[in-house]
Design goal:
The complex is a heterodimer of chains A (115) and B (111).
Chain A: E1 5-7, E2 10-13, E3 19-24, E4 31-37, E5 44-50, E6 53-56, E7 65-68, E8 75-79, E9 88-95, E10 105-106, E11 110-114
Parallel strand pairs in A: 2-11
Antiparallel strand pairs in A: 1-3, 3-8, 4-5, 4-9, 5-6, 7-8, 9-10, 9-11
Chain B: E1 4-6, E2 9-13, E3 18-23, E4 28-36, E5 43-48, E6 54-57, E7 60-65, E8 70-75, E9 84-92, E10 95-101, E11 105-110
Parallel strand pairs in B: 2-11
Antiparallel strand pairs in B: 1-3, 3-8, 4-5, 4-9, 6-7, 7-8, 9-10, 9-11
Classes of the chains: A mainly beta (115), B mainly beta (111).
Chain lengths: 115, 111
């Protein structure tokens, strides 16, 4: 595709509900990242995939958060039993190469509001 | 291990210059700069890979002092379109598989 696409753009969930956020990276991009951005803050790293392998999940805040990229392209971030503190914008980014030296392209994000 | 940015916010008149600083307590492989406008995705500006490297495009440039673990972003002759929040991202030598972003510097350019 032309860019990184995320869906839905907005999601309102009742506390305790499970949600699934989708990311379609740029075709051919090896690296995929998920970030969480609270209002007025910088993006906080959640997890990193290289193709289908999840190489780093050190930023996932709890075991309620789970991410997958089974075929090395589309990725899903799942949050179980949502809490109010999960409210944030979830950004997905992809890049052609390694994070060290390659620019990342970000999607528009999914704004999650937990009520 | 989040990098520190300064200033937190700056207001400029069109045509004025600004410097945004970024520093890390950890040894760095690279520094990345992004700009995010309100409600939009962060957009890549540049990556600095080597100590002493300087890069630029248009009237935005940056430098990287590897020894001091610091980077600075220079905006000269600012334009209205430069308004947004600027984030520096650091890739640390201890965990080079991710970019860790700072808290951001809000830049407002007014006519």
């Amino acid at each position: 595709g032309a860019g990184v696409s995320q869906s839905p753009r907005y999601k309102v969930a009742k506390r305790g509900q499970d949600v699934a956020l989708r990311c379609d990276p740029i075709s051919g991009h090896v690296s995929l990242f998920w970030y969480q951005q609270a209002l007025g803050q910088g993006p906080e790293f959640l997890t990193y995939f290289q193709n289908e392998a999840q190489l780093d999940k050190s930023g996932l805040p709890s075991d309620r958060f789970f991410a997958e990229r089974p075929e090395g392209s589309v990725s899903t971030l799942k949050i179980q039993r949502t809490q109010q503190e999960d409210s944030a914008v979830y950004l997905c980014a992809s890049s052609l190469g390694q994070p060290l030296n390659t620019e990342a392209f970000f999607g528009q994000g999914t704004r999650l509001t937990v009520v | 291990q989040q990098p520190v940015q300064s200033p937190q916010a700056v207001i400029l008149r069109e045509g004025e210059d600004a410097v945004i600083n970024c520093s890390s307590s950890k040894a760095l492989y690279s520094v990345h700069w992004y700009r995010q406008k309100h409600g939009e995705a962060p957009v890549f500006l540049m990556i600095l890979l080597k100590g002493g490297e300087q890069k630029g495009h248009d009237k935005i440039s940056a430098s990287f002092n590897e020894k001091k673990q610091q980077s600075s972003l220079y905006l000269t002759a600012s334009q209205l379109s430069y308004s947004g929040t600027y984030f520096c991202g650091s890739v640390m030598k201890t965990s080079y598989d991710k970019v860790i972003f700072g808290p951001g510097t809000s830049l407002s350019v007014i006519p």
